[in-house]
Amino acid sequence: MDKKQFPILGIDLGGTKIAASIIIDTDTIGKPKRVPTPHGKENIIQALLKLIEEFKQDNLIVGVGIATAGIVNPDTGEVIGSTGNLPGWEGTPIKKIIEEKMALPVHVENDANASAYAEYRASKFKADTCLVTVTLGTGIGVGIVINGSLYRGAHFAAGECGHLKVSLNNHRRCTCGLWDCWEAYGSGRGFVATGYDALSKISAHQSKLALKKEKLTTEDIIEAAKDNDLVAKQIIETWHEHVAAGMVSLCHTLDPDCFVITGGMGKFVDYVLLKDLIMDMTLPRISEKLEIYPSSLGERGGMIGVAELVLDTFNSSAKYTQSLQKK
Ligand SMILES: [Zn+2]
Predict the structure, then answer these.
(1) For residues 72 and 90, is the Cβ–Cβ distance under 8 A?
(2) Which fold has domain 125-295?
(3) Exposed end of the chain (fewer CB within 10 Å): N or C?
(4) C-alpha 245 to ligand 1 mean position (Å)
């Protein structure tokens, strides 16, 4: 199949914004268009329809891929479990609604899964490998590609690794209601919580961060570390230990070839430090050849990956038709 003949509209629906771009031959065409995510299910549907209509007016589109937060059944295109970022989104039959209104084939996928698929297709790794993406953002998302296919689990919830338990101390409550989930420590939110923990143990003269006691941000800590603030440096090192803790569990579960790090917090990762921490806590056979590298696709991963999944559905239905014709 010549992919150039199959322009797909790739849409990434997140808690704060919806990003969309025409995808041709595994790349975005032009700068993705971004609109704020409205509040409420009906408003989100209307925003998606408006975006698709706008792209349809100026472009030939043969399919639509929608990467969304939440647990998704990709066969039915329904959101079967939502996240706190999209309240009320659970139970939405996105594929059915959009296909009926737009008369275009639609594929819906969890955003971390879509991103993982794009990273796998863009990587040097081929069919017999295991690639895991770790999205370090407000929370933590994981996508798993094994032997060239997404691993979605028995209930489409594989990769909800932000809720791996990394401590038994009942120290931090996660947004999901459980205690000591990985994302309560390794996410952007966790990073700032670690900052507050550190500030509670020092006196005001030990760090200029003490002045920010009421409204500490990620940027405050990063900037202070650049100014050689020792407390800030320690917070960053502790955060790396927290990020490594979840990845070590994934190493021992999946024995992956590589991790690809993406998400807004990804730019603060020290890859040498992270790899050292993981090697210290992982069986040597697993960690020796393990690769860890930053995403090459960044925020575009979700929309590119879901567009590639639309093309895959075209390929598999074409193969099915051919097999029927041979009978
Ligand atoms: Zn949790």
Answers:
(1) no
(2) Nucleotidyltransferase; domain 5 (3.30.420)
(3) C
(4) 15
